[in-house]
């Protein structure tokens, strides 16, 4: 499972300091006026806690700490895990397709907790039982099929090649490439 937020503690030893200024390059500080910067009052314990909300991009997160009244900086880079979805839902723009037509198919990626990372690759496939088993039909356009900030992946299913038989259900499936057990299917019909 990936990281939604990261909580850290800073402790200063052997140095008198009033505050520390933190900066983050990827993500945002919680409970801060400026989401990219946070000023922590150290107090008598010389300890302060902060929380950073991770972006959905799964990129490394670098936190810079600067001691007040100095030019001394400390850098800490944290590699965040990619958050794969728990579930994928398919929604075609239409359930009937003209003989030479196309339809937009959206795959929505969801998590029970938090959000999936951006950049999750989804594979689409369409098959039809033509009497002797499943046969791949049509093509998907708009490759690459990668999620964006809305946790949605869109593809255009076209029946211009590998023609399906009319009035027999076409099963469209979508699966997460890095975890094929996360998949979903839906049926559409090609009109004569």
Describe the protein's architecture and organization.
The chain has strands at residues 5-11, 19-24, 28-29, 37-41, 47-53, 61-67, 73-78, 87-92, 96-97, 102-110, 122-129, 134-136, 139-141, 152-158, 169-176, 179-190. By secondary structure, it is mostly beta strands.
Biggest β-sheet strands, sense, barrel: 5 strands, mixed
* Unreliable spans: none
Shape: rod-shaped
> Radius of gyration in whole Å, from Cα?
25 Å
How would you classify the helix and strand content by structural class? mainly beta
Which characteristics define this entry?
16 strands; 5-stranded mixed β-sheet; mainly beta; rod-shaped; 192 residues
């Amino acid at each position: 499972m990936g990281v939604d937020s990261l909580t850290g503690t800073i402790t200063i030893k052997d140095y008198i300091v009033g505050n520390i200024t933190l900066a983050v390059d990827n993500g945002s500080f919680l409970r801060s006026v400026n989401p990219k910067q946070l000023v922590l009052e150290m107090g008598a314990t010389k300890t302060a806690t902060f929380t950073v909300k991770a972006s959905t991009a799964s990129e490394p997160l670098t936190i810079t700490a600067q001691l007040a009244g100095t030019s001394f900086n400390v850098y800490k880079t944290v590699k965040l895990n990619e958050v794969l979805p728990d579930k994928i839902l398919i929604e075609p723009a239409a359930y009937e397709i003209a003989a030479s037509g196309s339809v937009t198919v959206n795959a929505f990626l969801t998590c029970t907790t938090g959000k999936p990372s951006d950049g999750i690759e989804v594979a689409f496939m369409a098959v039809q039982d033509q009497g002797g088993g499943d046969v791949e039909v049509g093509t998907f356009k708009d490759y690459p099929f990668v999620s964006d900030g809305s946790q949605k992946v869109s593809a255009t299913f076209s029946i211009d090649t590998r023609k399906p038989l009319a009035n027999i259900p076409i099963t469209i499936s979508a699966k997460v490439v890095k975890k094929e057990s996360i998949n979903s299917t839906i049926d559409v019909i090609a009109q004569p």
